[in-house]
């Protein structure tokens, strides 16, 4: 397929305009179903699950099933790209490339719906990757058990790599994650009478600073961890001392042991704030994601395939502190994930992320070739 005539660029743009939050992707699911409706039906079977879709391409002489996963949700970010096809949903944006992930999956699916390989293919359009996580409940369904793949693959766009790059590694690729929500409740009051109150804005600010010491002083420097507080809310108006504050963040670690240790330290610091600022606190860890652990043999084989059989430039990447609930999909089924170069001066989760759409054709061609190699 020539990149110039790639219809999946237009599909990506249409999906880009309708970003929706996890498990709220009704328009997105409707768009995907309408597209699939127009594919030849002889070789495909479809089941919807919540806002996601399972779709099996029946192989001509199946010995196994190969899974392909694409995530479908957007993020609560106000888009600032100025693109003609920018988001039509106020305050929502496909700022993590899932619009590209879906259009690439449709491109691959369209090819195999008309040219089925010997083996079965299972396409999974998965909701809620950004949270609270759709992969784990999706693999716990009867649909997944019935059509169970023997291996699964997935990609994620990478704004930092040029188009034409694929980057991955055998073994650990993405971190363990845990969301983090901390609520602080004290005694509010008049801005001019701080001595009669317990100010939760001051307590929250102190806690944010203390949390950074966990990574700096409690985690082995040769291991890696991140604590990010992405949102702080507190108080009501400028001249009232805040009764409540809330921190919302995420924890990332490369090992399960570090996650446990980081949480213990966070709990100790929160307890300290409770005593020091005379307030009540609560911690909620929200959703947690299993690390993405690429199957060594399959990933090495894929890396050799990319090097020998395609015009794509392969890079052996390092681990990243990003999280992906796809990790659950390949925790008990062999599989791997790879980065797809989609150069953009602004990175993932940025309001100006503008991936290079030429990456769509590169991915469709490369994955079709790889699946032809594995499934025939
Ligand atoms: C690829 C990517 O950016 N994934 C997200 C996953 C977020 C999981 C969860 N909501 C959390 O924040 O812990 C990421 O932020 O890495």
Automatic annotation (TrEMBL):
User: Catalyses which reaction?
Assistant: N-acetyl-(2S,6S)-2,6-diaminopimelate + H2O = (2S,6S)-2,6-diaminopimelate + acetate
Explain the purpose of this protein: Catalyzes the conversion of N-acetyl-diaminopimelate to diaminopimelate and acetate.
Name all Peptidase M20 dimerisation domain ranges.
Answer: 182-271
Family of the protein in this entry: Belongs to the peptidase M20A family. N-acetyldiaminopimelate deacetylase subfamily.
Q: Which GO molecular-function terms appear in the entry?
A: N-acetyldiaminopimelate deacetylase activity
Instruction: Answer whether the UniProt record assigns the keyword Cytoplasm to this protein.
Output: no
**Coiled coil regions in record:** none
EC number(s) reported in the record: 3.5.1.47
Look up the record and name the pathway of this protein.
Answer: Amino-acid biosynthesis; L-lysine biosynthesis via DAP pathway; LL-2,6-diaminopimelate from (S)-tetrahydrodipicolinate (acetylase route): step 3/3
Which major enzyme category is it?
hydrolase
Protein's name in the database? N-acetyldiaminopimelate deacetylase
Q: Which residue positions does the secretion signal occupy?
A: none
Keywords annotated in UniProt: Amino-acid biosynthesis, Diaminopimelate biosynthesis, Hydrolase, Lysine biosynthesis
Q: Which domain of life is it from?
A: Bacteria
Keyword hit for Cytoplasm: no
Question: Entry's NCBIfam families?
Answer: amidohydrolases (TIGR01891)
The active site is formed by 71, 130 (proton acceptor)
InterPro entries for this protein:
AcetylDAP_deacetylase, Amidohydrolase, Bact_exopeptidase_dim_dom, Peptidase_M20, Peptidase_M20_dimer
């Amino acid at each position: 397929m020539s990149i110039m005539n790639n219809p999946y660029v237009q599909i990506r743009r249409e999906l880009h305009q309708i970003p929706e939050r996890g498990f709220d992707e009704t328009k997105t699911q409707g768009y995907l179903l309408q597209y699939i409706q127009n594919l030849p039906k002889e070789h495909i079977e479809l089941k919807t699950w919540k806002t996601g879709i399972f779709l099996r391409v029946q192989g001509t002489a199946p010995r196994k099933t190969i899974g392909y996963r694409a995530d479908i949700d957007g993020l609560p970010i106000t888009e600032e790209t100025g693109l003609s096809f920018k988001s039509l949903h106020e305050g929502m944006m496909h700022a993590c490339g899932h619009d590209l992930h879906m259009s690439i999956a449709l491109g691959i699916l369209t090819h195999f719906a008309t040219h089925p390989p010997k083996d079965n293919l299972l396409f999974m359009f998965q909701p809620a990757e950004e949270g609270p996580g759709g992969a784990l409940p999706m693999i716990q369904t009867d649909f997944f058990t019935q059509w169970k793949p023997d291996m699964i693959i997935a990609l994620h766009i990478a704004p930092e790599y040029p188009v034409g790059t694929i980057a991955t590694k055998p073994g650990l690729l993405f971190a363990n994650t845990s969301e983090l929500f901390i609520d602080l409740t004290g005694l509010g009051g008049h801005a001019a009478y701080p001595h009669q109150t317990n100010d939760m804005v001051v307590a929250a600010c102190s806690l944010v600073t203390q949390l950074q010491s966990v990574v700096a002083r409690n985690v082995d420097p040769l291991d890696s961890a991140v604590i990010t507080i992405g949102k702080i809310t507190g108080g009501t108006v400028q001249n009232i001392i805040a009764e409540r504050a809330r921190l919302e963040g995420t924890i990332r670690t490369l090992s399960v042991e570090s996650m446990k240790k980081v949480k213990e330290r966070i709990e100790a610091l929160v307890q300290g704030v409770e005593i020091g600022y005379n307030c009540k606190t609560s911690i909620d860890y929200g959703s947690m994601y299993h690390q993405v652990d690429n199957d060594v043999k399959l990933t090495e084989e894929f890396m050799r395939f990319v090097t020998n059989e395609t015009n794509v430039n392969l890079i052996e990447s390092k681990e990243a502190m990003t999280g992906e609930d796809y990790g659950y999909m390949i925790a008990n089924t062999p599989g791997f994930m790879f980065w797809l170069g989609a150069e953009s001066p602004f990175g993932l989760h940025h309001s100006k992320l503008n991936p290079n759409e030429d990456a769509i054709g590169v991915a469709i061609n490369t994955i079709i070739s790889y699946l032809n190699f594995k499934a025939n």
